[in-house]
Amino acid sequence: LRRQRQMCIRDRVIPAVLEGRDVLAIAATGSGKTLAWAAPVAQALLDDKPAKGQRLSPHQRLRCIVVVPTRELAEQIGGVVKDLIRDCVLRSTAVWGKVSLGPQRDAITPGVDVLVGTPGRLRELIEADVIDPASVKTLVVDEADRLLDMGFRPQLLWLTKRLPRCEQRILATATMPKDVEALAGELLKAPIRLEVHPNTVAVDHVQQHVVMAHPRDRVNLLLHLLHSG
């Protein structure tokens, strides 16, 4: 039964994304939303070949931007995308703030098709002319509820105004509070809304616990928890 629920969101989202529709996907954390949009987006990028005789510059190669709220999610989702496209011509990388811009700039400069990043770092890269959003055709806003909880609404709206050729927007969220509903209304055009067990923060096999600790004790506490199983 659990396997069937996890597959359901992919079964519903993949055809809608392949049709080029704007999509609002609402499903619990851990239900497979990332793969649900990543697989058809990758297929669409493979099908979107330059005209015969046309050669894209590294700047023009970027056609999909994925916005996520945290470094951890940038690394996680960036890893999913990279594994998915590993054996094809597509290239991707992930970026986040509070680290040196140089190594991330060096990874992007040769050209990437998919860029996963946090809102602040994406803005930095655009303002530094490291990436050109003019060629982006697909925008994915993943973990939209967490992005808004963390106050990233202004950065999201700033970014969307700089995507003149964006043809498809995908918004994925675990919950659907009023602020996410409002954001979807602003970003998406005639979207198809796909819901699987909404209003749930995590699927039933994920357990969540909060442990309060002084900052200097966090590493030792984490190691203790890992070793104790």
The biggest beta sheet is recorded as: 7 strands, parallel
Helix content: 40-55%
Note the total helix count.
Answer: 10
What's the N-to-C terminus distance? 27 Å
The arrangement of helices and strands along the chain is: HEHHEHEHEHEHHEHEH
Strand order of the largest sheet: 3-4-2-5-6-1-7
Q: What is the rounded Rg?
A: 18 Å
| Uncertain segments | 1-7, 198-203
Beta-strand content estimate: 5-15%
Q: Which class do the helix and strand fractions yield? A: alpha/beta
| Shape, per Cα inertia axes | globular
Task: Report the average pLDDT across residues.
Answer: 88
Q: Tally of extended strands?
A: 7
Write a structural description:
The protein has 229 residues and is α/β, with parallel strands linked by helices. It has 10 helices and 7 strands. A 7-stranded parallel β-sheet has the order 3-4-2-5-6-1-7, sandwiched between helices. The model is unreliable at 1-7 and 198-203 (pLDDT under 50).
